Amino acid sequence: MARAEHLEGLVALADMARLAEQAGAQSGDARVWLDFGIDAQGCREICGHLEAELQLSCRRCLEPVAQRIDSDFRLGMVTSDALAAELPGTHEPVLVENEQLNLLAVLEDELILSLPQVVYHDEAECPVSRDQLHSGEASDASIDSPVSPFDVLRQIKGKL
Ligand SMILES: [Zn+2]
């Protein structure tokens, strides 16, 4: 792939409203590395990596747990849904309209897709877990299922 342009930097997590809906309000920055290029088929693509530390809520006690997100992705920039369907499976389609790419939204999507379905404290650090070790109760049978990353993906695709 011809490397046309490289970009790296920090993106403020507090600016990501959709991430906040999925994962609660965040602070700090995501660190991103992006290579913009053109693949062998002439498709414009972005190879990226992003890292962030999010505060997600523990499914047992609902207190925050620091969760490290580390994601590699490969995006194919397309101008229509038809072209998106032709992308190789290695690429996630990103719709570019009028040459405008909303990079922040793309990075936010990547973070949302990288969210773990469920997070827990280590048992020794979780107050509820400690209590349950004594009472012997089943932990999470009554808690609603978390949002699956695939549901999120469907929502995002529905918007393209
Ligand atoms: Zn906990």
Automatic annotation (TrEMBL):
InterPro entries named in the record: YceD, YceD_bac
GO biological process, any: ribosome biogenesis
Top-level lineage group: Bacteria
Keyword match ATP-binding: no
PANTHER family (UniProt xref): LARGE RIBOSOMAL RNA SUBUNIT ACCUMULATION PROTEIN YCED
Function of the protein: Plays a role in synthesis, processing and/or stability of 23S rRNA.
Family indicated by similarity: Belongs to the DUF177 domain family.
Protein name as it appears in the record: Large ribosomal RNA subunit accumulation protein YceD
